[in-house]
Amino acid sequence: MAGGLASLVATGTRLWLDSVDPALVGEARAAGATGATSNPVIIADLVKSGRFDDRIAALTAAGGDDAAVAWALTDELVAGAEREFLGVWEMSGGDDGWVSFELDPLVEDSAQGITNEERVARYVELGVAWSRGHRNRMIKVPATAAGIAALEARRMRRYRRHDRTGRFHPTSRPGAGEPAPDDTILR
Q1: Environment class of residue 25 by beta-carbon count within 10 Å: exposed (0-12), middle (13-18) or buried (19+)?
Q2: Residue 186's pLDDT band (boundaries 50, 70, 90)?
Q3: In the chain, where are the structural domains located?
Q4: Could you give the CA distance from residue 116 to residue 16 in angstroms, rounded to a whole number?
Q5: Distance CA 11, CA 7 (A)
Q6: Fewest 10 Å CB contacts: which of 61, 75, 104, 120?
Q7: Three-state secondary structure along 33-100?
Q8: CA 78 – CA 92 distance, rounded (Å)
Q9: What architecture does CATH give domain 13-186?
Q10: Is the dihedral of CA 146, 152, 157, 163 positive or negative?
Q11: pLDDT score of 160
């Protein structure tokens, strides 16, 4: 009888690594993990480790401000984990093998003085930008009014209204595991 993580995997549980730490991703995959998650706290903890100081210095030297450097490093770390789990994603037809990328939580900061509609537009913009070119990246938005409205806005763009019936019909039908262009925000 299998023990530890192997026993969880044997029950059909999908084990996801709560990190995109390159030192852990391969190990977790070997242990049966089928995806990974990231968020700003996970990335901050990786930065605090000091292991990415050289990369941060290079991104800073290239002219990035703090926010640009943080998001570029996040993108790189998530993309590295995506490569590790891409085979799972392909074999499952897109049902598993995802790596999550959380959008900027500061969009919700009331000090920014933006309306809910502006927040929605910002989430859609960020989701499209950060998902472009990534097959198994899952975009995470907060469960706020603006976050939910952004998901709805993206979902509705995938559909066109039929003139006579008023029902919505898909405008594109991606193949198994292949998202329609710019639709990965819905994952």
Answers
A1: buried
A2: very low
A3: 13-186
A4: 32
A5: 7
A6: 61
A7: CCEECCCHHHHHHHHHCCCCHHHHHHHHHCCCCHHHHHHHHHHHHHHHHHHHHHHHHHHCCCCCCCEE
A8: 20
A9: Alpha-Beta Barrel (3.20)
A10: negative
A11: 39
Q: Does residue 137 contact residue 98 with C-beta atoms inside 8 Å? A: yes
The pair of structure tokens assigned to 63 is: 């002219």
Q: Whole-model pTM?
A: 0.80
In a 3-state reduction of DSSP, which class is residue 159?
A: strand
Q: Look-up: residue for tokens 């852990």?
A: 24
- End-to-end alpha-carbon separation of the chain, Å? 35
User: Rounded to whole angstroms, how far apart are CA atoms 76 and 72?
Assistant: 6
Q: CA 63, 50, 71, 149: dihedral to nearest 10 degrees?
A: -160
Token pair recorded at residue 45: 């903890």
The span from the CA of 73 to the CA of 80, in Å, is 11
Q: Mind listing the pLDDT tens digit for each residue in 67-116?
A: 999 999 999 999 999 999 999 999 999 999 999 999 999 999 999 999 99
- For residues 169 and 162, give the distance between their C-alpha atoms in angstroms, rounded to a whole number: 7
Residues whose CB is less than 8 angstroms from the CB of residue 106 and which lie 6 or more positions away in sequence, other chains included: 112
Which CA distances in Å does 166 have to 153, 155, 160, 163? 18, 16, 10, 6
